[in-house]
Amino acid sequence: ARGRLRPLRTVVAWRGRTEWDQVMVGLYCKDSRLQQEALDRVSAWKSRYGPKMPLAVDCTAELVRCKVLDSSGKLRSHELILSYGLALVRFVNLITERKQKMVNIPLRQLASEVDIPIWVVDLRHELTHGKLPQLALCRKGCDVVLDWLRKTYWSRQLGNNLCEESEEEDEQEGTEANTEMDSDTWE
């Protein structure tokens, strides 16, 4: 018995696949009440997991939080632009940060490598260095980034089929599917 190796276990903040799936579905549903419940669960995960929280989960939660605030009608358009803007800037910065530490590569090139639309990087640039864009563009950027996160991270975890269902909807709407990136980029 001593000579046998035990399989390595990974400690995560969520209780299991069921909880993970519930949060993923909650974040991506259209019901703001269910989205808020999923955001509360992500906050609990973050309190347990701290800095080990996957960047994709954190970015998704921030973007969904913006959508929930937007649907509440409690914020003015300028406040919503700032909220969406911070979440979008943070997303682009965080997904490119790991590769930027290795070599100084332009953000547009990094985004292209992971199939993020160049206009999202340009939006991030405007939010950071230029005039604030229109709220509609921030909303569209949020939707595109959330879709990218769903396809490249959430749907790939634990063999979930959420991506397949949504891709059928995307094809009906005439949108292109994004190429998936290696999961180790997020870990």
From TrEMBL:
GO terms for molecular function: endonuclease activity. It holds the Pfam family Las1. Residues 164-187 are annotated as: Disordered. GO terms for biological process: maturation of 5.8S rRNA; maturation of LSU-rRNA. InterPro entries: Las1 (IPR007174). Coiled coil: none annotated. It comes from the Eukaryota. GO terms for cellular component: Las1 complex; preribosome, large subunit precursor. This is LAS1L protein. The lineage of its organism: Eukaryota, Metazoa, Chordata, Craniata, Vertebrata.
